[in-house]
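Blinded run. Sample ID left blank on purpose so nobody reads anything into the name before looking at the predicted structure. Input follows.
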Amino acid sequence: MYIFAITVFVDICANMDKLSVATDDGCVYAGIVVVIFKTMNYQIRRAKITRLIEEALKCADDLSEFTNVVHAKIVKDIIERCHMRNKVIFYGFGVLGCLLGIALLFFSPMKNGLPIRATYPFNMTISPWHEIGISIESCAVCAGVMAIVSIDSITILICSMITMEFDILSVNFENCGKEIARDVSKRGYSTAVCVSSRLPGGNERVCDKNIARDDERRTGNTFVHRYKTCIRFHQRLVSMTNDYNETYSSSMCVQMLSSTSIICLTGFQAVVVGGQSSDVIKFGIFLNAAISQLLYICWVGNELSYSSSVLDKSQWFSGWNDERSTDIVQVFALSTMFARQSIELKAGTFYILSLQTFIAIVRRSYSVYTLLNNIHSENS
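Blinded prediction complete.
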């Protein structure tokens, strides 16, 4: 991939005065650069990514154990929805990657006998350099497609898992005050009925309300206990989100810049320059892949921001106002202040991953496409 990226870059420099050729090479170069950068990021931060995945899985297990069995169906629906979303993204990436690789290698018009334009220090029309050039480009394209599909799938899977955990935590927050009553009812207790027990010295009436309270103390299933546990889970999720941003922020920033460039250049090539049907097919698939990849990333970031933003509402409906504890007001006030802090996925210091960012990038790409079109018209 490094050799291939260098040869494409050299071809861009050699054809800077030819806008159609430079933009053609630029589409491929923008795609291969982001693959190389993400691969290097995974190699450099491999241990940190591994710890992040393990922490996300551990937090999911802990949340599942903490969640009451009464709400198992709600949590199951959240997990199934997350699983379906991940399947759509993974298979979507896989199909787009395969179509893109096939289009680049088999549906592109040959340049000097090679499927992709590039400048090599040797005559690539004669053997064995011709076969070497084809091998380099074929291996680079196949490896690039496999790398970007696997890397982006893992990246989005981690983010989707954190989003799922925010949704499950929201369910637990909202039902903190209902857990005790449901547990008591499930054990057959009734606060309105008292039973008799034979004790030394005569009959004594023992109220089940006291039994229920003793059981709560024994199991730790009090409102304050559950509420504070939810707060600790929230702190874990915020910490994981910060680690995620620190790990993937640079990769996301490069992805945003690459997608913007690809959308501009492929749109220009497909509409203005492309005259052969194979060119239209190639750049049409390239354009769809860039837009889809950008949409997936922004969509997942938007879902995470939304799931974290509803936690303060879930805390308000937790039943905190029914408690007689003296410190619950202070705990509630601090937790809601902490929950109202925006949790966002960031691409460097320039972008926040959301659907608004996706729309803004598409609009900006259209402006750059219009500029390239005007330059091409003037040169013609």
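Unblinding after everyone has recorded impressions. The chain has twelve helices and four strands.
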